[in-house]
Write a structure and sequence with these properties.
With 574 residues, the protein is an alpha+beta fold. The protein has 17 helices and 22 strands. Pfam families: Glyco_hydro_47 (PF01532).
């Protein structure tokens, strides 16, 4: 995964090489640890998976304490068995979510059994109201990913015959999504009924991430089926969202799909917005459209300018850029992983360490921690087995090969086994201060948490392949046939350079679509970029005659200006 990708992506910095001496004996110790930890993660996965198959299958998710089930993706989640519709037998969400993990774990037998069962039993023509976003990332993404893995001859996961059954299921599901997009704005409803479409008096409120994180799965579905409606609907949504941004290139958190009005102006990188950023970047990798890059570049620079405060990211008003909430949320922990893809490895490492400090302090990460009050949010003290910290740890280890990230993964594995493992699987934590458990094993624990921890210690599955992972951890292969056009030039190797081998004057790494790290040369002080937005001042002593002599700050991505006494700095407040 982290080799240079298809030539379209001269910018994606999957590998940032660091030159340092590696002691062979130390390398051996790391290899032994990785093998041991890989097996521990494997045991975790099968403890969760086997209990799901025993006590919850074919329903959505496992309740590990009572060894029962919940159909959590629909409004049926809290109903008892005798109250479920007679035509509803569950969507086997955890099985669908587990297929790509089974492939990565090398369990061909269980993968094929899962494919065959789904082919014969999974039906979507049922009277059930479901969340569009969750069904997209879990069911549609899981089916498409498993289909791509099944037809990949290098994996040989199917020993018998496979006739695109999973793709047909995905296409059926995708068609049931389309009525949700029939709104004046083109932005879809957050809820849809599999059989009846949009229900009467359906809520018109949705979130930026909920409607803006559909393009990977629906775009892939169009490329695989030849039906452009899926990708067109998701792309129209993205473009409409982008038109609704503020003059600061910020978006709110919730909006009305009918009126197109923002309902919540506070924005950040956490819940309600998070995967919107992720999907812009990953859509550019997967499909190569410049539209995605242009939107991501502006949105990312705005996030660094208005949300970042040292290693932390607060929330801000989308219109003014002024801070609104100073808080850490567990969902924000995906951000360092995204920054690795961008090439901002130093910034990613800085934030990641703060998230891991929170993990060490509490044993796991609380859902929300109030930075300004130095306390856990009184009503969000839980930890539902989220994967985001494991995900970012995986990306950072791939980028740096720093063994410290292996220690982070080991600490996470120990905590999960110590605090959340029960006889019937792994339970969510209701209160991180007491470690009281909640009777719920989310499907993403198998789709993401276990997967990223396993890949941290054994990346053989992705080492020689080009994949991107959806926000639910489902791998999608990067293929040249899905790209609009090839680039004018391609830079191979772990470093990327401009055509001339030198930086253009006044240009950032992001504007040139290259990694900020460069090889040493005689003009290092002029060419070195500390982050993707950094533009050094014209003079090494920071003296200036005008603002044109000043660059862009590496941390805040704000334009530096020339003071009255002739020095560049951040003199102008936001």
């Amino acid at each position: 995964m982290f080799r240079p990708l298809h030539p379209k992506h001269v910018y994606i910095c999957f590998l940032i090489s660091f030159a340092f001496f590696i002691d062979p004996s130390s390398q051996h110790v790391d290899d032994v640890k990785k093998q041991q930890m890989r097996e521990k993660v494997r045991e975790m996965f099968y403890h969760a998976y086997d209990n799901y198959m025993t006590y919850a299958f074919p329903h959505d998710e496992l309740k590990p304490i009572t060894k029962s089930f919940t159909d959590s993706l629909s409004e049926l989640g809290n109903l008892k068995l005798e109250h479920l519709p007679t035509d509803y037998n569950g969507s086997a969400v955890t099985l669908v979510e587990s297929l790509s993990s089974l492939a990565i774990f090398g369990n061909k037998t269980e993968f094929e059994k899962g494919v065959l069962w789904l082919s014969e039993n999974l039906k979507f023509d049922v009277d059930v109201r479901v969340n569009l976003f969750e069904c997209n990332i879990r069911l549609l993404g899981g089916l498409i990913s498993a289909h791509l893995l099944a037809i990949d001859p290098t994996n040989r996961l199917i020993q018998g015959s496979y006739d695109n059954q999973l793709l047909r299921l995905a296409e059926d599901l995708g068609k049931r999504f389309l009525p949700a997009f029939e709104t004046p704005t083109g932005i879809p409803y957050a809820w849809i009924n599999f059989k009846k479409g949009v229900m009467e008096n359906e809520t018109t409120e949705t979130s930026t991430s909920g409607c803006g994180s559909l393009i990977l799965e629906m775009g892939a579905l169009s490329r695989l089926t030849g039906d452009p409606r899926f990708e067109s609907a998701a792309l129209r949504t993205l473009r409409q969202l982008w038109r609704m941004r503020s003059s600061l290139d910020l978006l709110g958190t919730t909006l009305d799909v009918v009126t197109g009005e923002w309902l919540e102006y506070s924005s950040g990188i956490g819940a309600g917005v998070d995967s919107f950023y992720e999907y812009l970047m990953k859509a550019y990798i997967l499909f190569g459209k410049e539209d995605y890059w242009r939107m991501f570049r502006s949105a990312y620079l705005a996030s660094q300018k208005y949300f970042r405060y040292g290693p932390w990211y607060h929330e801000a008003n989308m219109w003014s850029g002024k801070p609104t909430y100073w808080q850490l949320t567990s969902l924000q922990a995906f951000w360092p992983g995204l920054q690795v893809l961008v090439g901002d490895v130093a910034a990613a490492n800085s934030s990641h360490r703060e998230f891991f400090h929170a993990w060490e302090k509490f044993g796991v990460i609380p859902e929300r921690y109030l930075l300004d009050h130095q306390m856990i949010h009184p009503t969000e003290r839980y930890y539902p087995l989220r994967p985001e910290l494991a995900e970012s740890t995986f990306y950072l280890y791939q980028a740096t090969k720093d063994p410290w990230y292996l220690d982070v993964g080991e600490a996470m594995v120990k905590s999960l086994n110590r605090y959340t493992k029960v006889a019937g699987g792994f339970a969510s934590v209701r209160d991180v201060t007491t470690m009281q458990l909640e009777d719920h094993q989310h499907s993403f624990f198998l789709a993401e948490t276990c997967k990223y921890l396993y890949l941290l210690f054994d990346d053989s599955f992705v080492a020689k392949r080009n994949y991107i992972f959806t926000t639910e951890g489902h791998p999608l292969q990067v293929m040249s046939s899905w790209h609009d056009k090839l680039p004018e030039s391609y830079f191979s190797g772990n470093w990327t350079f401009s055509k001339s081998g030198a930086w253009e004057s006044g240009a950032s790494a992001m504007s040139m679509k290259v990694c900020p790290s460069i090889a040493p040369n005689s003009r290092l002080h002029e060419q070195h970029r500390e982050s993707v937005c950094h533009v050094p001042d014209q003079k090494i002593d920071h003296k200036c005659w005008s603002n044109r002599d000043c660059g862009v700050d590496a941390t805040t991505c704000r334009q530096r200006s020339c003071s009255e006494v002739g020095f560049c700095g951040l003199w102008n407040p936001l």
